[in-house]
Amino acid sequence: MGSGGEDAGEDPAVQIIGDRPPAEVVRELKQQDGADIWLVGGGKLAAALLDEIDELIVKRSPRVACAGKPLFDGEFTPTAFVPVATKEFASGITRTTYVRER
Predict the structure, then answer these.
(1) What is the domain range of residue 8?
(2) Which of 12, 30, 71, 98 is most buried, with most CB under 10 Å away?
(3) Could you tell me how far CA 32 lies from the centroid of its own chain?
(4) Is 74:44 a contact under the CB 8 Å cutoff?
(5) Residue-by-residue DSSP string for 80-91
(6) Which residues contact 69 (CB under 8 A, 6 or more apart)?
(7) In angstroms, rounded to a whole number, what is the distance separating the alpha carbons of residues 43 and 38?
(8) How many Cβ atoms sit within 10 Å of the Cβ of residue 78?
(9) pLDDT of residue 9
(10) Which of 73, 80, 81, 35 is nearest to 56 (CA)?
């Protein structure tokens, strides 16, 4: 559902890609002017988009709360990323930003 109870297909801010490969859609978006693309969708989507990912932001917690989820779930080619910034919070959580090694 879109905002205001509208069907997502009726919301002009929502584009449904259907069966199109996610990497194809992301490549098209990267050719357009605008803001960065933020991937939120889980390990399967991340694995499908690995070749298009320029930067990773990884948050880590010193507490074990569950079994965890893989960052990349499925077939992918090992790819090198380099840490460029780390921030530690008072809670002990850290956030590290990595960029694709060129």
Answers:
(1) 3-100
(2) 98
(3) 18
(4) yes
(5) -EEEEEEEE-TT
(6) 42, 43
(7) 14
(8) 6
(9) 57
(10) 81
| Rounded-to-integer distance, Cα 102 and Cα 100, Å | 6
For residue 66, the SS3 value is coil
d(CA 13, CA 1): 12
pLDDT tens per residue across span 43-92:
999 999 999 999 999 999 888 877 777 889 988 788 999 999 999 999 99
| 92 residue type, one letter | G
Q: What is the CATH number of the domain that holds 41?
A: 3.40.430.10
For the chain, the domain total comes to 1
What is d(CA 11, CA 2) in angstroms, rounded to the nearest whole number? 6
